[in-house]
Amino acid sequence: MLYIYTGDGKGKTTAAVGSLIRGYGAGKPCAIVFFDKTSERCAELDALLELGIHAHVFGANRILARDNNDDSNEGGDFRFENIEEDFIEAKKALEKAQELAKFAEILVLDEFLNAIRVGIVHIKQALLFVEEFPQEKLLILTGRGLPEEIELRADLISEIKNIRHPFDQLKNTAVPGIDY
Fold this sequence. Notes:
Shape: globular
Structural class: alpha/beta
Strand order of the largest sheet: 3-2-4-5-1-6
Number of domains: 1
């Protein structure tokens, strides 16, 4: 089965992780691959690993340092353009997903739709993975931008819509443990 959590609202990853935890609690082998993220910006990673869920993070840092004298990325600008490392990390993530698909009854590919949208995963690669994933298992894809080719294959699509968010009013920046 193929589930999709997409849209411009907050909660896609949260919904996918909730499904993963529910499956794990029912005794199913579960795994998650985070695309285009780094472990520093993936607070759920430690909790999932502590539970015993296979969780893997792949991505080049997209937060740029504020200035040349600052090694931290705190408060830096977001890098939108792709660099070679983005493609390398996406390839590694897809390879890990193929490996995990052999045993996981529930597999989440977080931000996979974004990876397609920004061009670090080609739609043909994505379709091949989706088509080869065993139908008796559950594959969950998250991210913004749902290609029609994948939409047509989905058994469930939940669109998470942004009604209001602190970012909209510029009252808040991303909060560790809440937004990432």
